[in-house]
Amino acid sequence: DGGITQSPKYLFRKEGQNVTLSCEQNLNHDAMYWYRQDPGQGLRLIYYSQIVNDFQKGDIAEGYSVSREKKESFPLTVTSAQKNPTAFYLCASSIGQPGELFFGEGSRLTVL
Amino acid sequence: QKEVEQNSGPLSVPEGAIASLNCTYSDRVSQSFFWYRQYSGKSPELIMSIYSNGDKEDGRFTAQLNKASQYVSLLIRDSQPSDSATYLCAVDRGSTLGRLYFGRGTQLTVWP
């Protein structure tokens, strides 16, 4: 079945460590997005990519990095520069009407 | 003023009632409006999109848009316990890139 696979679902990290969250889709979607969700908060855009080898910063890109070497893959690295990384991270893709997003199951990162 | 404001709730309605969820937005150039449903601990899923003033119906769901008042709403008729979730309002940023502003969500509980 087509979909977006995020891994790992749960991740614990010590302060000062970088961690990479995987996002893979087999929907043949061009646009991909990373959002962050904190308890009681709306989703905030971290990075997005419209095509392979191109990506743009969102509203809260500081402390994060991405790559888009393949259409199917859009990994997110949470670096040690991110001051408050504990959150629920959501990868999404979109085809057709912009804004109609299809989300993966999410990755929950906890910094110890 | 936040870009997208929603009644934080929680909203509680009995089974079979109409649930009314409201959202206001601040950016007058926004043209696309979305409602996402998010069950506890899960990722959001798109349930409605609306682009023109007026009503759009899909099964038990009706989205209403009034651009002059910068207001969008979601009505859920014949509410079911399975509708219990957080409903996120999302608004585009006046571009075709699919970047959205999300509200904080309204938590809905439908009791039997």
Account of the protein in words:
The complex is a heterodimer of chains A (112) and B (112). Chain A is 0% helix and 50% strand. Chain A is built from no helices and eleven strands. In chain A, the strands form two sheets. In chain A, strands 2, 4, 5, 6, 9, 10 and 11 form a seven-stranded mixed sheet that branches. Chain A has a four-stranded antiparallel sheet with strand order 1-3-8-7, with no helix packed on it. In chain A, a hairpin with a 6-residue loop joins strand 9 (87-94) and strand 10. The radius of gyration of chain B is 13 Å and the shape is globular. In chain B, strands 2, 4, 5, 9, 10 and 11 form a six-stranded mixed sheet that branches. At the A-B interface, strand 4, strand 5 and strand 10 of A face strand 5, strand 9 and strand 10 of B.
Summarize the structure.
The complex is a heterodimer of chains A (112) and B (112). With 112 residues, chain A is mainly beta.
Highlighted features:
heterodimer, A: 112 residues, mainly beta, 7-stranded mixed β-sheet, 4-stranded antiparallel β-sheet, 0% helix, globular, B: 112 residues, 11 strands
Topology of this structure?
The complex is a heterodimer of chains A (112) and B (112).
Chain A: E1 4-7, E2 10-13, E3 19-25, E4 31-37, E5 44-51, E6 54-57, E7 64-66, E8 76-78, E9 87-94, E10 101-103, E11 107-111
Parallel strand pairs in A: 2-11
Antiparallel strand pairs in A: 1-3, 3-8, 4-5, 4-9, 5-6, 7-8, 9-10, 9-11
Chain B: E1 4-6, E2 11-14, E3 19-25, E4 33-38, E5 45-50, E6 54-58, E7 61-66, E8 71-76, E9 85-92, E10 100-102, E11 106-111
Parallel strand pairs in B: 2-11
Antiparallel strand pairs in B: 1-3, 3-8, 4-5, 4-9, 6-7, 7-8, 9-10, 9-11
